[in-house]
Amino acid sequence: MQKGLNIYVYVLIMTGITALVLSFLYNVLDPIQAKNKEEAKKKSILAALPDGGTGLDFDKNVKVVVLDAKGKVKFEQKADTKQEESDKLFAELNKRGQGVKYAKLVDIDLSLEEKFPLDQRIYPVYMVEGKSAKSTIVVVRGNGLWDKIWGYISLDNKEGKWTVSGVNFEHKAETPGLGAEIKDSKDFKDEFKGKQIYDNGGKYVSVAVVKAPKNKNWEVKSISGATVTSVGVSEMMIRGISYYLPYLEKVSGKADGGK
Amino acid sequence: MATDTKVSVLGKNERKLITDPIDDNNPVTVQILGVCSALAVTSQVYPALIMAIGVTLVTAFSNLVTSMLRKSIPSSIRMIVQLLIVAALVQVVEMLLGAFAYSAYEMLSVFIGLIITNCIVMGRLEAYAMANKPWQSFLDGIGNGLGYGFILIIMAVIREISGKGSFMGWKVLPSWYIPNNLMVLPCASLFLIGVIIWVQRARNQKLVDVS
């Protein structure tokens, strides 16, 4: 009995010390990591641009537009948007519960939106005004082989035709050298450049990832050895961009009307 | 214990602790431990390198901590205590990387779980750290981590060059070389590790008797 008690005391002390050390480190290091995470996200969004977003500052060059589940503009950040206006948006969004608490526009993330039913979700659009070009970056999210994959798709409105000018994919747990190539392989991402999301008849087709691409304008080659992830990217491109279609069509329609 | 009488920081025995696991007593090719992760992360050099560093850090420090506590750990729950130490260390490594080396953290975070389940870590705690002094145990951990990393990197270099024609992401083979996609697939690592074991045994006759 005495020996048994010692073991319990030993386990308690060991667990206590470990918990103390870990929680202390967590408190010190977590804010640094959260900041790194935000910076990494900003960089990842800008990386969708054709030139990789070099020399751009997210806070200065990017304006965020928030769409509701139907693709209508819910909130639009402008140069003179005041803090109170975005705070009002966050108050409304945070009311939906599920532990989602937004405090900044860059916090809005599809990984959190996934917690809500489809008709309550919102979708962020990043409007980039660089030195030379204007780009619209949309976010897509889907499933890879092991876990979630997501991507930022930079779209340019070329004479009323939405054309992909660059993509940047991210993943949570795809296999390095195989599925992770969607993020690591520049060749794979470069293939998306110049692809269109509408066919010649004006029907939405998005960009498909297939084994043997036949149609240069709408298909890219999949990654060998990573079939499931490639199919996931393909599905994500079709479904993910479709949420933005009402908005994209409104913008391109306007552009035509203005001429 | 013979080593107790001799106090030496990096004597002959200590050097052997580091060099032995690289060849004669390699954890992957001789003890056949940690093969699962050796097969999984070797299609490219960079992740293999990060994984090797992570495992080396965890084996070294878990060996050190376990060895310092070895006299107080009750034998009936020693595995649980070892697991606690390993899990806590992996968590510490993960948090430090997240705060100070975010890009490496993003590459590594998937494999952190694999480090906890790596048989080499627990194997060294049981086989060495529970019976030896802290400094020797620390060196033993580094040696085994390096031995594991050595095999990982050999495999990754062969697989990345033959399977992708590149090294650390840079194209090294001329464009007429058509990359052999089979080498990138998981099954290639299985026969590659077999070939490495074969070559090692043909060269090092000492190992033939071990099997």
Detailed description of the structure:
The complex is a heterodimer of chains A (259) and B (211). Chain A contains 8 helices and 8 strands. With 259 residues, chain A is α+β, with helices and mostly antiparallel strands. Among the domains of chain A are: 1-44; 133-258. In chain A, strand 3 (123-129) and strand 4 form a beta hairpin. The radius of gyration of chain A is 22 Å and the shape is globular. The termini of chain A are far apart. Mean pLDDT of chain A is 86; it is low at 255-259. With 211 residues, chain B is mostly helical. Chain B has a domain at 29-156. Chain B is 67% helix and 2% strand. Chain B has 9 helices and 2 strands. Chain B has a two-stranded antiparallel ribbon with strand order 1-2. The radius of gyration of chain B is 18 Å and the shape is globular. Chain B starts with 11 loop residues before the first helix and ends with a helix. The relative contact order of chain B is 0.18. Chains A and B meet through helix 1 of A and helix 4, helix 5 and helix 7 of B.
Identify the notable features of this structure and list them briefly.
heterodimer, A: 259 residues, alpha+beta, two-stranded parallel ribbon, 40% helix, globular, disordered C terminus, B: 211 residues, two-stranded antiparallel ribbon, 9 helices, 2% strand
Gap between N and C termini of chain B: 28 Å
Strands of the widest sheet of chain A, in order across it, are 2-1-3-4-5-6
Q: Which range does the strand content of chain A fall in?
A: 15-25%
Report strand order across the widest sheet of chain B: 1-2
Which percent range fits the helix content of chain B?
55-70%
Query: Which oligomerization state do the chains in this entry correspond to?
Result: heterodimer
The helix count of chain B comes to 9
Mean pLDDT of chain A: 86
Radius of gyration of chain B: 18 Å
Order of helices and strands of chain B: HHHHHHHEEHH
Structural class of chain A: alpha+beta
The number of helical runs of chain A is 8
Average of per-residue pLDDT values of chain B = 84
Shape of chain B: globular
Overall structural class of chain B, as computed from helix and strand content, comes to mainly alpha
* Greatest contact between two chains: A-B, 29 and 37 residues
State the helical fraction of chain A. Answer: 40-55%
Number of strands of chain A: 8
For the largest beta-sheet of chain A, the strand count, sense and barrel status come to:
6 strands, antiparallel
